[in-house]
Amino acid sequence: MNIENYRAAFLNFMSKNLTKNEPKNLYKPIDYIMSLGGKRMRPILVLMSCDLFGGDISEGMEAALSIEMFHNFTLIHDDIMDRAELRRGKITVHKKWDLNTGILSGDALMIQSNQRLEYYEGDIFKPLIALYNKTALEVCEGQQMDIDFETMPKVDLDAYLKMISYKTAVLVGASLKMGAIICKASYQDQERIYNFGLNLGIAFQLQDDYLDTFGAEDFGKKIGGDIIERKKTFFYIKTLELADSSDQELLLKLYANEDEEQKKIAQVKSIILKYGVSDLLLAEIQKFTMKALAEIDALSLDVTKQELLKNFAKSLMTRKT
């Protein structure tokens, strides 16, 4: 279970298997977004799962590429919806080309993602495509919920957890389950590895929320970005729930106004700390991490593999970037 070996093997496969087609203005943006880098965590999870359940990682490559293509399709369309100008420090697809090209290339990338699964035979293909379609629809539902939250002054915490589950965590769970399906793990193990990924994905996103506001300067993105963008994260929702009326009013005012950025960030952080919400978020992260680790104990893997998987999960959840 060497993460760098998985990553290197996947990148080698991807470089040889990205379709080069005409018209160039449809496929160049696809090559561009796929080459922008990133951790490649989702395809790595597919290969890791294949390895854990005794398969050859080469059998997971098509599914790994499918997952990575789908993820990058969502990035193209998310950037369009967010009117974002940069992705991983580079110009976004719709800015580098144009809006119509971004939409069309994103659509083509999703179709190509779907096509990669045609590599698998019927007894594997059917559960794979069912999982793919279920996950793809949930990601869309999560994105719509996130958009809806932008115009809602108050958001229910359960609704927020459902949103991050659909928008982020289901794809983590699906990546792991795909590897289990390909290697013909038992149905019970397929469900357990999915639930491991789902809970770890929720914990990972909650940790991202925490690091965005209280992370180190080398976190990898601007500290306080969620506050400036007025995102309804755990911090906003829980602080609004616990604050007295005057602090509620202040928090709503800060999110409504275009105040000087650093001043706004400092004021919001002060209110969060006043009501102990940072500690509550850390406890929530721990809760979902423990739920993920509990699923590992139920997997029919030997103790050595279980420990490797636990160490992987813990390494993700102790990150500072």
What's this, in brief?
This protein is an all-alpha fold and 321 residues long.
Order of helices and strands: HHHHEEHHHHHHHHHHH
Helix-residue proportion: over 70%
What is the overall silhouette? globular
- Measured between the Cα atoms of the first and last residue, the distance is 22 Å
Low-pLDDT windows of residues? none
Side by side, the strands of the main sheet go 1-2
Main pleated-sheet profile:
2 strands, antiparallel
Q: Care to count the β-strands?
A: 2
State the secondary-structure class. mainly alpha
Strand content: under 5%
Number of helices: 15
Describe the structure.
- The chain has 321 residues and is mainly alpha-helical.
- Helices cover 75% and strands 1% of the residues.
- The chain has a two-stranded antiparallel sheet.
- α3 packs antiparallel against α4, α11 runs antiparallel to α12 and α12 packs antiparallel against α13.
- It is globular and about 60 Å long.
- The two termini are 22 Å apart.
- The relative contact order is 0.10.
- The mean pLDDT is 92.
Keywords:
321 residues, mainly alpha, 75% helix
Task: List the topology elements.
Layout: H1 3-17, H2 24-34, H3 41-52, H4 61-82, E1 86-87, E2 90-91, H5 93-96, H6 99-116, H7 122-149, H8 157-182, H9 187-214, H10 225-228, H11 234-242, H12 245-256, H13 261-274, H14 277-298, H15 303-317
Antiparallel strand pairs: 1-2
Helix pairs in contact: 1-3, 2-6, 3-4, 3-8, 4-6, 4-8, 7-8, 8-9, 9-14, 11-12, 12-13, 14-15
